[in-house]
């Protein structure tokens, strides 16, 4: 009997891991596929740089607003079922968004796709904590690898797909990523059929004690600062290179390098972070790489474009680091759900102005030096918050 139970448990963990990885692949497709064809989207929809900056801010607005609903939805329907519905919503948004006739509808349909991502973003750390409590760091590393594989693939191939497979139609180049979301849906069906486990620890709202906890606020600020950096890179890095004279295809590949580095580095970093008591100096080190990368772009994007891409790829691994820290700072899966919702939602509120402000500064100064100087300065609060969030504390 014991052997049978162990076998069932192992099988359940394998199913959960596959589902986790397939969901993670989709967590950045809706965003990273836009940057390489942003010029074409702007031309097709008549979009200014400032409005394009709003487009790059839409993900963080949506994640902040929708993320807070995830604990309540998970308590009522179960995390797996909510994730399943989130993937369906994502697929629908991705399929329809590119064919919007105007900017407003394009933004609204982007919100639909991103709403699906938002609940999945918040709930995946709790799935890791619940199903892989003995391997939090390694499992977080695996799913951030999957996330980066998806992000990299979308960034590197959206332009070639649009130009070569779809006859130069950027709309089809964006819409094709809905297929990836559809493929992830069946893997969550077995998990969604499991009975909902209700515990007294799960509440329907972010508890007051989190808002009074230094660890939660440090995580939220760190999450917000790394999100600002990540979405500026996602939204503007290809354009920064293109404005410096780099071709659209090479700019897409350079951007893909920043995502690709997250594959080996994200896994290694999460696995290591999960084994040590404090992650403070890891966060500090990543911030230093960020200062160097943004400083290089400020100096001259075309001077050493591959080096700048590598440096920014390293600082982007702050995302798997903060996910690992969220899972480690919560004592139980229920606490991780609440901590994840708080850190991500509040963090995304902090991140909302960043991409939009970068676009506005670019319009105001007709260049990239002022926006990039701002990004160098924002590495300072990221370093401080990362140091505080990485200390060996639990909620």
How is this structure best described in words?
- Helices cover 80% and strands 0% of the residues.
- It has helices at 2-25, 29-32, 38-45, 49-67, 70-77, 79-96, 103-131, 136-165, 170-175, 178-192, 208-211, 214-243, 248-260, 262-273, 280-299, 305-315, 318-329, 333-351, 353-365, 369-389.
- Helix 4 (49-67) packs antiparallel against helix 19 (353-365) and helix 19 (353-365) packs antiparallel against helix 20 (369-389).
- The longest helix has 30 residues, at 136-165.
Short description:
With 395 residues, this protein is an all-alpha fold. It is 80% helix and 0% strand. It is built from 20 helices and no strands.
Topology:
Layout: H1 2-25, H2 29-32, H3 38-45, H4 49-67, H5 70-77, H6 79-96, H7 103-131, H8 136-165, H9 170-175, H10 178-192, H11 208-211, H12 214-243, H13 248-260, H14 262-273, H15 280-299, H16 305-315, H17 318-329, H18 333-351, H19 353-365, H20 369-389
Please tag this protein with its features.
about 400 residues; mainly alpha; about 0% strand; disordered N terminus
Q: What sequence of helices (H) and strands (E) makes up the elements?
A: HHHHHHHHHHHHHHHHHHHH
Please tell me how large the radius of gyration is. 20 Å
Main sheet, how many strands, which sense, barrel?
Answer: none
Q: Could you give the count of β-strands?
A: 0
Q: Which shape, going by the Cα principal axes?
A: globular
Low-pLDDT stretches are 1-7, 199-208
In terms of structural class, how would the helical and strand content be classed?
Answer: mainly alpha
Average pLDDT rating:
84
Continuous helix count: 20
Distance from N terminus to C terminus (CA atoms, Å) equals: 37 Å
Helix content: over 70%
By oligomeric state, this entry counts as single chain
Bin the strand percentage: under 5%
